[in-house]
Specification:
heterodimer; A: about 120 residues; four-stranded antiparallel beta sheet; 11 strands; about 50% strand; B: six-stranded mixed beta sheet
């Protein structure tokens, strides 16, 4: 069965970076884009961007351009999202997801930014 | 920038029909997708490509789209349908970016 398993919770100081992993299984990794979506406490869903695991091509939300980097390692069917220059408003649950007609989400990774 | 607009809240009594709308200029050209999210859980897809229901989703969930508005309808809403609902679509400007609506809190009581 399709699974997306994310890395564990992180606590970071303002100005630091965080890198979240998303290990996939149960399907051909390069066949589907991986999207990253975050949700701040009590807030709605915010799309961050996607990566094409086949080509490595990316597309980022305009708001996060310059701070977010999405990468992948096809040898281990894993996608990564790195966010730099963290601020308190980056505190959120971060999800990786395979969006579309067949839709799968990771379990979410809580990133807390606090001094 | 492109936006999708949802009402912040909708309230119905059990057994009534709940309708949640999502409006956006790109919806005549792009499909709408709908998620249900219960507290502390990842979103669950309930409608895709405007009107299609994934397997395992109850038949009381249906979707429609006309012009710049997509609608999620829950016919005979049940207490367990109480959740946040989000629409999303793709920006039609050609940048292939995903846009989420702000979400609608459905109360069934």
């Amino acid at each position: 069965q399709v699974q997306l398993v994310q890395s564990g919770a992180e606590v970071k100081k303002p100005g630091a970076s965080v890198k979240v992993s998303c290990k996939t299984s149960g399907y051909t990794f390069t066949d589907y884009y991986i999207h990253w979506v975050r949700q701040a406490p009590g807030q709605g869903l915010e799309w961050m961007g996607w990566i094409n695991p086949n080509s490595g091509g990316t597309n980022y939300a305009q708001k996060l351009q310059g701070r977010v980097t999405m990468t992948r390692d096809t040898s281990i069917s894993t996608a990564y999202m790195e966010l730099s220059r963290l601020g308190s408003d980056d505190t959120a649950v971060y999800y990786c997801a395979r969006l579309g007609t067949t839709d799968y989400w990771g379990q979410g990774t809580l990133v807390t930014v606090s001094s | 920038s492109y936006e999708l607009t949802q009402p912040p809240s909708v309230s119905v009594s059990p057994g009534q029909t709940a309708r949640i709308t999502c409006s956006g200029d790109a919806l005549p050209k792009k499909y709408a997708y709908w998620y249900q999210q219960k507290s502390g859980q990842a979103p669950v897809l309930v409608i895709y490509e405007d009107t299609k229901r994934p397997s395992g989703i109850p038949e009381r969930f249906s979707g429609s789209s006309s012009g710049t508005m997509a609608t999620l309808t829950i016919s005979g809403a049940q207490v367990e349908d109480e959740a946040d609902y989000y629409c999303y679509s793709i920006d039609s400007s050609g940048n292939h970016r995903v846009i989420f609506g702000g979400g609608t809190k459905l109360t069934v009581l």
